[in-house]
Task: inverse folding
């Protein structure tokens, strides 16, 4: 077996040193009845060629996004990731290292995390950020929970513009701990609705901008209203590239900003792994979940970085921890950081503008199709349209023409059957758009 | 100091500032088409002030992160014996497979007609996990081990609610040696935690556990093999006791590597167990993630698995994405860590049923060999019988000489090894938990043991100063963690750095 270095001779010598006759003697504590006599009922070992063949065969049963005219977003976005990003994250020193608990030999990971935290705080317009969460949806859920922890209140009002998967993940996490989630009805342009439900029992209001329908919203009035009642404004998002162009939630008074960072540095991967971004105010840092890297000095007075504020975390605080989380999105944060370094402010803003332009062209093309109504009033690179028939059927039909037309809202949450959510990025060509518009016309 | 260089670099180890400190970092390493301009449908929400994000050209970026990488220890470099972490070799075929266009460039919401291969892979993975654990159902979506615990404990909560006992069964029994995630998870699910003491053999005190069982107990959470690296031989009795008292049995699968292919948790009465794909099935740890924590469930809990679920549809498969009544709600967006599924599946196919069994045996053999070699030189609590996949030592025998666990760990760094897990489990004072895994050669393990023995002898020779000064040869000396926590500095700031510079002048 190519991954197992011990030889039969090694094993015999090691058993002799231990002073037992066979490996079975090392399993004496396992109840006899639970020791499998033979092998489990699965295929036996295979060589690299055979395994690669099987995996490739599975991969080839899929239709990769890049082989289609692709207009799907709704929480995951297809952007071009520079080749050097994937090259660097595959360096063994990054790929095969552990959580940096021994900081003297993990400065690479730690300095990259410190850079990541600074980039995320800048991007989202916040004071500080943590070293990432599992993904956008779990970051969003933890943010809602943090609002309850920081305010010592037990209700969170959730806008109907939040991605339905995010609402569900937030409900699952919060309700388990007795924090009530009040989810408002889906609305394309309804983030401000949360203000109507504010009172002094509300821990926080959770809104999304750009929201699942693509709508961008001025959050300033919402944060003013929330703060007036002693509640926090929690803002989530799924398209991090938007903040290359759109005013970020932190600059509009959001107290916690938590969402998805996949679109910078990370591929679609059929849903994961992605990278949850989580940023907040300095004064709330001790309520913040997740790992965080901080600056310090070593015994020679030289600057270095460590994981810090771990007294919030499960391995120290056990049942009193802010969260049970003990991993972050490690390598995905590194991909984010490297891609962001390649972009720089200039590249990011250019990338955002390209996305916006492409989406505007797409909106014009689709709105020109008879029967299609553009629903989203203000958008970045994603918007919703109402079709004269069920959106799922149209998506399925266009898939047959190698066009991924977006997602029917009803796939995310039952209802609004005629609403289709479409996204455009820098990867879409004018031809793609023309093809999509023509096919849509044919399908209606 | 005379050994200081003018650049701050030391040979292959290059000094490297933060990207924010690199002067003139206003470059960009991407060449994008120039936007045509003039389009704005943002409704007046254009960003007012540009973020302070430095940019570097591609060669500078590659060099910056390559230089950083060289400050990291990694499995690719040497033995990484972190107990409870299962740092085994990461086969590169797994990386190749995960990057196949058909997996990496696939959106989670693409029409099912375009994703049949992905659904088949997930179904295959589920099949392997169920065969290896002997349980009937699995939730694939948990994103990490702790997320899997959350999933399993919520399934237990949902089952209790369905029985009408959600409000009354609120107490969860957790052995005092458990991973910190176990009590944290129980609390996150709204339970209270009641700690069960261990016995003199390093196992759960069965009588104490039995005394704590009652009509308000929701579950027992047990790690097996436990965090001392020992198999809980009473596991079946524990399962029977908790079932008899109307509760459920959660098993923390962090240490599954010791028994994979040899013992099936389903045969031990387990109701729920998460599987860390990044441990047993070798998806890379990546400096702290991403992980994946699929959670297997017994017949009693299967109906409560959270969405999404893969179901057969015609000749192919479909994804059921909406929650079933009474089941646990969605844990995250989409379908889980697909990139980890492809890697774990590749790993499993490579090893097969025979290879996986050999994995467990070699992991256990390596750990016992290390313990046999080191026991005469360190103290080994609970060290009479065999251990499983990790060897537990403590610093009792060297402490009188002024040398503690942390000193051994830091001295190991100078010897070119990653230290073992230190000060965990908390129930052992000065614990050193050593998990070599099966992917180490006897030669490498002997090198490690020789170094450990030399360090023990040096400690006993009274050379405590040597240890306190370690590490000397790492990219950093010992770092001041207290200062980091007392005056948290969590990001770079232009104004703060300028103020420091000015004060220094």
Result:
């Amino acid at each position: 077996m190519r991954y197992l270095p011990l030889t039969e001779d090694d094993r015999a010598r090691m058993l002799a040193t231990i002073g037992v006759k066979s490996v079975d003697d090392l399993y004496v504590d396992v109840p006899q009845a639970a020791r499998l006599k033979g092998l489990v009922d699965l295929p036996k070992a295979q060589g690299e060629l055979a395994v690669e063949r099987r995996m490739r065969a599975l991969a080839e049963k899929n239709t990769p996004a890049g082989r289609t005219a692709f207009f799907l977003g709704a929480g995951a976005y297809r952007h071009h990731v520079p080749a050097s990003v994937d090259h660097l994250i595959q360096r063994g020193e990054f790929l095969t290292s552990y959580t940096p608990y021994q900081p003297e030999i993990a400065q690479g990971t730690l300095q990259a995390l410190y850079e990541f935290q600074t980039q995320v705080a800048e991007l989202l317009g916040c004071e500080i950020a943590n070293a990432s969460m599992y993904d956008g949806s779990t970051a969003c859920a933890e943010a809602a929970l943090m609002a309850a922890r920081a305010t010592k209140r037990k209700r969170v009002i959730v806008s109907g513009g939040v991605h339905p998967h995010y609402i569900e993940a937030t409900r699952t996490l919060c309700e388990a701990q007795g924090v009530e989630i009040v989810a408002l009805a889906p609305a394309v342009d309804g983030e401000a609705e949360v203000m109507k439900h504010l009172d002094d029992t509300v821990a926080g209001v959770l809104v999304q901008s750009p929201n699942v329908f693509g709508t961008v919203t001025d959050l300033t009035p919402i944060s003013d209203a929330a703060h007036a009642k002693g509640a926090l404004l929690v803002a989530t998002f799924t398209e991090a590239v938007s903040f290359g162009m759109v005013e970020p939630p932190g600059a509009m008074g959001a107290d916690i900003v938590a969402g998805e960072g996949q679109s910078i540095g990370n591929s679609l991967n059929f849903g994961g792994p992605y990278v949850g971004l989580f940023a907040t105010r300095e004064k709330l840092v001790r309520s913040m979940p997740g790992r965080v890297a901080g600056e310090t000095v070593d015994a020679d007075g030289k600057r270095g970085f460590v994981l810090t504020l771990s007294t919030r975390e499960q391995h120290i605080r056990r049942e009193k921890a802010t969260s049970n989380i003990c991993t972050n999105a490690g390598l995905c944060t590194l991909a984010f950081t490297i891609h962001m370094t390649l972009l720089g402010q200039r590249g990011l803003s250019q990338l955002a503008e390209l996305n916006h332009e492409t989406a505007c062209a797409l909106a014009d093309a689709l709105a020109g199709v008879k029967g299609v109504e553009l629903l989203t009033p203000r958008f970045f690179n994603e918007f919703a349209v109402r079709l004269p028939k069920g959106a799922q059927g149209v998506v399925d039909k266009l898939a047959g023409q190698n066009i991924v037309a977006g997602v029917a809202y009803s796939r995310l949450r039952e209802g609004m059957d005629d609403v289709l959510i479409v996204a455009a990025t820098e990867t879409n060509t004018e031809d793609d758009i023309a093809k999509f518009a023509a096919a849509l016309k044919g399908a209606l | 100091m005379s050994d200081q260089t003018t650049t701050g670099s030391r040979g292959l180890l290059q000094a490297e500032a933060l990207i924010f400190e690199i002067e003139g970092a206003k470059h960009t390493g991407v060449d994008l088409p120039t936007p045509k301009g003039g389009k704005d449908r943002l409704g007046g929400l254009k960003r007012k002030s540009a973020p302070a994000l430095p940019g570097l050209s591609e060669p500078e970026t590659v060099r910056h992160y390559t230089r950083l990488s060289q400050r990291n220890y990694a499995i690719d470099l040497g033995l990484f014996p972190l107990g409870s972490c299962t740092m085994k070799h990461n086969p590169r075929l797994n990386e190749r497979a995960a990057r196949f266009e058909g997996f990496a460039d696939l959106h989670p919401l693409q029409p099912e007609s375009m994703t049949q291969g992905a659904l088949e892979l997930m179904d295959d993975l589920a099949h392997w996990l169920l065969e290896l654990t002997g349980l009937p159902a699995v939730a694939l979506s948990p994103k990490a081990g702790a997320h899997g615990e959350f999933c399993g404990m919520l399934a237990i909560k949902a089952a209790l609610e369905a029985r009408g006992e959600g409000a009354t069964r609120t107490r969860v029994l957790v052995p005092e040696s458990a991973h910190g995630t176990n009590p944290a998870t129980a609390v996150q699910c709204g339970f209270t935690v009641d700690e069960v003491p261990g016995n003199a053999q390093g196992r759960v005190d069965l009588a104490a556990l039995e005394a704590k069982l009652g009509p308000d107990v929701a579950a027992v959470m047990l790690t097996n093999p436990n965090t001392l690296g020992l198999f809980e031989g009473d596991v079946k009795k524990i399962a029977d006791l908790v079932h008899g008292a109307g509760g459920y049995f959660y098993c923390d699968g962090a240490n599954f590597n010791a028994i994979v292919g040899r013992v099936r948790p389903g045969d031990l009465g387990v109701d729920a167990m998460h599987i860390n794909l990044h441990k047993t099935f070798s998806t890379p740890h990546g400096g702290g993630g991403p992980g994946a924590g699929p959670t297997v469930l017994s017949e009693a809990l299967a109906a409560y698995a959270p969405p999404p679920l893969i179901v057969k549809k015609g000749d192919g498969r479909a994804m059921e994405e909406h929650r079933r009544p009474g089941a646990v709600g969605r844990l995250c967006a989409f379908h889980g860590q697909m990139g980890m599924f492809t890697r774990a599946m590749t790993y499993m196919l490579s090893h097969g049923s025979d290879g996986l069994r050999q994995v467990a045996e070699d992991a256990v053999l390596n750990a016992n060999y290390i313990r046999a070699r080191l026991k005469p030189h360190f103290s080994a609590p609970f060290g009479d019988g065999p251990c499983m996949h990790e060897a537990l030592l403590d610093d009792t025998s060297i402490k009188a000489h002024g040398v503690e666990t942390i000193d051994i760990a830091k001295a190991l760094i100078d010897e070119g090894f990653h230290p073992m897990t230190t000060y965990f489990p908390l129930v052992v004072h000065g614990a050193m938990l050593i998990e070599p895994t099966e992917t180490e050669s006897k030669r490498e393990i002997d090198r490690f043991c020789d170094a450990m023995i030399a360090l023990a002898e040096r400690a006993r020779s009274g050379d405590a100063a040597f240890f306190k000064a370690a590490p000397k040869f790492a990219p950093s000396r010992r770092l001041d963690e207290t200062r980091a926590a007392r005056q948290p500095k969590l990001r770079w700031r232009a104004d703060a750095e300028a103020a420091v510079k000015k004060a220094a002048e």
User: Anything to note?
Assistant: Chain A has two domains: 65-80+345-443, 83-338. Chain A touches chain B through 208 residues (CB under 8 Å).
